[in-house]
Amino acid sequence: MTQDLLDLGAGRNDAIQRGSLPPSLGTWELILHYLANDRHERLLEMAIQHVDRLHDLRTSRLPVMRRCEDGLEDVNGDPLGLVVFQPEWLDWNNGTVRKFAQSIYEHRIFAELPILADALEDAGCTDEQILRHLRYNMEHTRRCWVLRRLLA
């Protein structure tokens, strides 16, 4: 997998002009090749790297979102301040919160963060800053301060 293929898959039109693409191998052909040859793990790794790269590009252009994801500001724009995480939340229900947070982080399925908020609430979390952040309709990233704190 080359950077040109990743760029092409992301819609960058100038990727073809840079010259290192094989003439008949497009992004989707490569994906099909990996799937047909049981190289699912490699395909997953490539997709995760590409999603991380796109998130980094986007958040570098949106400093407000980056400050929120880094835990410097609440979603309402106020400084975040001190937020206390209770170890009991991670142990609740045979470690459901920890396992779910780990899965979200590893697979970059940030659309599931509101469900993580529900699990945290069931585990006893009442901190509005944590719950509001996880439920807020924004583009979350692997930089999410709540995920990083839960997995620390």
Describe it.
The chain is mainly α. The protein folds into two domains: 3-61, no CATH class; 87-151, no CATH class. Helix content is 61%, strand content 0%. The longest helix is centred in the N-terminal third of the chain and has 22 residues, at 40-61. The model has no long low-confidence stretch (mean pLDDT 84).
**In terms of per-residue confidence, which ranges show pLDDT below 50 for 5 or more consecutive residues?**
none
Content-based structural category: mainly alpha
Strand content: under 5%
**Arithmetic mean of pLDDT:** 84
By DSSP (H or I, 4+ residues per run), the number of helices equals 8
CA-CA gap between termini: 32 Å
Helix content: 55-70%
Number of strands: 0
Largest sheet: none
Shape: flat
Order of helices and strands: HHHHHHHH
**What's the gyration radius in Å?**
19 Å
Tell me the number of structural domains: 2
Topology:
Blueprint: H1 3-9, H2 27-36, H3 40-61, H4 63-69, H5 87-107, H6 113-122, H7 128-135, H8 145-151
Helix pairs in contact: 5-6, 6-7
